[in-house]
Amino acid sequence: xxxxxxxxxxxxxxxxxxxxxxxxxxxxxxxxxxxxxxxxxxxxxxxxxxxxxxxxxxxxxxxxxxxxxxxxxxxxxxxxxxxxxxxxxxxxxxxxxxxxxxxxxxxxxxxxxxxxxxxxxxxxxxxxxxxxxxxxxxxxxxxxxxx
Length: 147
Description:
Layout: H1 8-29, H2 37-45, H3 53-60, H4 64-77, E1 80-85, E2 88-96, H5 98-122, H6 124-135
Antiparallel strand pairs: 1-2
Protein name: HTH marR-type domain-containing protein
Pfam families: MarR_2
GO molecular function: DNA-binding transcription factor activity
């Protein structure tokens, strides 16, 4: 008999998709510029002062090409811009435009609402416990030699 118990990475992925789908639906309902889940994730890992495409790819866990495509889509919509990196003549930083900043603030408000809706469904105590657990440092992933 096969176990129906799902592993933690699957559950975390489902939780992330719940927020992502709620965010994208709310943005669409508000008439915001449509973005893909990958583009929304890119926005979430972008530093206020700007981030290189390579660093965005690392933070998102995607290839540099995937991050580059997401950036170019968002640049085309006017939500992001590329500017010279003062630390490197060869690199460019990706930053939010003023419209991108507005969209980022709007997304933050929507995510707060989604978290409040989650608290209504599962209880504030459960949401607080989930947040505390996920904010606790886990350390580096174990290496095969440490098993």
